[in-house]
Amino acid sequence: MAAGTLLSLTTPVAQGEQTGAGLNRFYSQRITWAACDQPVPPGVPADFWKQQWSGMDCGTVMVPMDYRGPGGRTLEIIVTRVRAKDPAKRQGALLTNPGGPGITGLFFPKGFARLSAAAESFDVIGFGPRGTRFNKDELRCEVPDQAPDRPTRPTDAQLAVIAEQARQQEEMCQRAGGELRKHVTTANTARDMDVIRAAMGERKINYYGASYGTYLGAVYGSLFPSKLNRSVLDSSMHPDWSYYEASKSQAIAIKASVDAWLAWVAQRDNAYHLGRTATEVHTALEKLRAELERTPVPWNGGPPDIPAVDGDVLDLIVGMDAPGRPNWDVLARLLIQFQEALQTGALSPDTAAALKIMVPAEPKTAIGVWEAVTCERDWPADVNEYYRQMRIFREKYPYGEGAMSAAPTPCTFRSFTPTERPVDLQRRGYPPGLVLQAEFDPATKYEGGPAMARKLRDHLITAVDDGSHGLYIGNACVTKRVDDYLLRGVLPSKQSTCAGAPRPDVPADAQPSRADQRGGSLAEQLKALADRHPKLPIG
Fold first, then answer.
1. Which residues are within 8 A (CB) of 333 and not within 5 positions of it... i.e. 6 or more apart?
2. Is 192 a catalytic residue?
3. Catalytic residue among 441, 458, 466, 483
4. CB of 369 closer than 8 Å to CB of 102
5. To the nearest whole percent, how much of the chain has pLDDT over 70?
6. What is the spatial distance between Cα 27 and Cα 62, in angstroms, rounded to a whole number?
7. Active-site residue among 116, 121, 211, 235?
8. What is the DSSP secondary structure assignment for residue 89, as one 8-state letter?
9. I need a labelling partner for 165 at 20 to 30 A (CA). Which of 31, 224, 317, 480 fits?
10. Cα–Cα distance for residue pair 81/32, rounded to 1 Å
11. Helix axes 278-294, 328-344, angle to 10 degrees
12. Is position 493 annotated as part of the catalytic site?
């Protein structure tokens, strides 16, 4: 591992099938499927809630909290299903996980079945990983009175404050999580998946996992090789990086896309007037950030925790939009509108509407699965090492989360001992699968795809000049190859490429300018892009 070390524990994880004594009562259960009718949470409109679950079947399975002591406390896991559209062509169950860790996969089958050709022949299965929202046994964290600071470019004085907030968050998660917390791990979630497989009456499962779900799928195949058939790992985590190294890699990947965007904008100065060289455009971007930091522009109607557009918000927006090549025109136009907002003191209605699409309000959550799962590997213990890294990142990689990508987290101050070592990933006993990776993926850096493909001896598809996180459905070339594999068992060559999502059709300065012919507001342009490039909701 590049940062952090493997856990130095005395009890290793046994590889291979794990269905020994004490687990028979879990493996002998069967799911009773019925139309989903989940209780409406407080404050959620009943019609909206019913619509979210419509078209799916629901069931539950019981799993042991501790697989080493299966006679103790049990957990209830909710499972969802969308049946194969053509029962005559049914090829089995496709278990899915959209990533995280810490997000539920309960609603994922509905969107997947709507967009994927594989849904013709597979029952699409989702589940709520242990501890996640809507399961009976949610893993909780206490919530501080005030949200922790997350500056993209913290001052030296803020570094110790950020570390102290992480330490306090660890204490709050430990108080609320109790004994369950140390059992919320990737390996145990993989074991839950195998109980789900057995409870469905399936001899083997097929698997689609995205982002963190790629690591979860690799762990499942390593623990239960005879139970896995076809597998697709979309936007893969690096199998050998610590969670801290993976976090830092996000800011590095984002900066590569920002640099490419700066060069693209510079070639179109007739359209944007932000500079004729990448350096000039970068200077304009940094000048805008400094002005927004001095004089934030109020954002009326924005998320409660973002009352104004300041320097940190600009870093976040640039980090979110620069990786997606189709969004490059929107991002350049947005900077121009921010410049105008500094003069008027207010965002235009179009800018506010576009920001609402780009930065949707997220509900406050007290689920503590992320703080548990990411602590299954060691993090550096010396806070001074974090401070050193954060100083580097605030200068070299400030966009997106910026320096917070290198910040301490609750795992730095972990208050529990993991119950086992991380699983040794390997593919022995199940067929080769597919790994999908975009060249400029901002969330799981490109190196993770080739590394996972090598580790598992899988086939790799690379989307060239693409900043997508999640390629299946969003990229037609990738999607066709995945469908050929899932539906017909046809693998592409060991390493193959697909063209990435296209850059905007805004001519460079050497060509006749059509910049004024784009038309439409920023919000309308964003909606049109979403329609042209549908994506699965992965985390």
1. 272, 522
2. no
3. 441
4. yes
5. 93
6. 9
7. 211
8. G
9. 317
10. 11
11. 40
12. no
